[in-house]
Write a structure and sequence with these properties.
This protein is 0% helix and 55% strand. It has 157 residues and is mainly β. The protein has one domain: YVTN repeat-like/Quinoprotein amine dehydrogenase (Methylamine Dehydrogenase, Chain H, 7 Propeller), CATH 2.130.10. Strands 1-2-3-4 form a four-stranded antiparallel sheet, with no helix packed on it. Strands 5-6-7-8 form a four-stranded antiparallel sheet, with no helix packed on it. A four-stranded antiparallel sheet has the order 9-10-11-12, with no helix packed on it. The chain starts with 14 loop residues before the first strand and ends with a strand.
Length: 157
């Protein structure tokens, strides 16, 4: 096992998320406001700098990731390192993201909702309500079902 740390191009703060990409690569995100790209043997490839700390990101393709910012979702191109789209989302912090299909992602927030986003046009196409607490995690079960976990101690389908 190879240990990645700040002395080998690693992060300088808490690592908050990981996502596997194809082509034997993965990404790591941190409170140091960076995204790092690595190969699966632990070799460092690239750093992408952001302007804020984030708690969640997901790969939406081999070359793009969606990052949950404080109140928005930013789409980054991993090749250029540039932010290519910002979707203004919430009145409260986003806690989690999950990819639903090639064109849609879901986000969970401290406002107790789950929102389904169309990535092509950058709009919310559906809002799911039901939790009494913050939505902390999401998991795609299949094409029509999503699991959500909340700090109200419930899991909803």
């Amino acid at each position: 096992m190879k240990i990645l740390d700040q002395n080998s191009n690693g992060h300088s703060n808490i690592i908050t998320c990981l996502a596997k990409l194809n082509n034997n690569r993965f990404t790591s995100g941190s409170n140091d406001k960076t995204i790092k790209i690595w190969d699966l043997t632990g070799n460092f490839i690239k750093t992408i700098e952001t302007t804020y700390c984030f708690k969640s990101f997901i790969n939406i393709s081999d070359i793009q990731i969606a990052i949950a910012g404080n109140f928005d979702i930013s789409i980054f191109d991993l090749n250029s390192g540039e932010c290519i789209k910002i979707i203004q989302c919430y009145d409260d912090y986003i806690k989690c993201l999950v990819k639903l299909n090639e064109n849609q992602i879901a986000s969970g927030s401290l406002d107790r909702t789950i929102k389904i986003w169309d990535l092509n046009v950058g709009v919310c196409v559906k809002t799911l309500k039901g939790h009494r607490g913050n939505v902390c995690c999401l998991f795609k079960l299949n094409e029509n079902q999503l699991l959500s976990g909340s700090d109200d101690s419930t899991i909803k389908v």
